[in-house]
């Protein structure tokens, strides 16, 4: 009785081990093909900002600083599937360790609710006719603080 039971257990183990390995290999093989991003996730060329363009991505403006000649139209494009705002005004009290903004003061020059990528209103353009430094931010996301430097 006892020797038979032992043989049965080891026989099961020999069958079960390859099956378990097959499952593990199958999982690791499919993981790269099933990313966490939604199916509408852009490829890298879709999120790369063009000339005079700022893309919102991963709760950041990219680039955060852009320098343009006076008279340039800057376009913001949403590179992700959540909404943002493009709100002109000062931001400050930036926490160095968290990168979070502590204050924001909209100045009314522009304020646009940027629709999620792929929806109507997912871009916004503004023409800068005066030289200067223009700070702006996204109201709900305290990591999104940026500026446009307009050179005369
Ligand atoms: Cu935002």
Description:
By secondary structure, this protein is of the alpha+beta class. The chain folds into two domains: 2-33; 44-151, Cupredoxins -  blue copper proteins (Immunoglobulin-like). The chain is built from two helices and nine strands, in the order ααβββββββββ. It has helices spanning 2-30, 44-47, and strands spanning 53-57, 60-62, 65-69, 73-78, 84-92, 103-114, 123-127, 132-137, 145-151. It has a five-stranded mixed β-sheet, with no helix packed on it. It has a four-stranded mixed β-sheet with strand order 2-1-4-7, with no helix packed on it. The longest helix has 29 residues, at 2-30. The chain is globular. The model is unreliable at 1-5 and 10-35 (pLDDT under 50). Bound molecules: copper (II) ion. Copper (II) ion binds at residues 84, 138, 140-141, 144. Copper (II) ion (CU) binds at residues 84, 138, 140-141, 144.
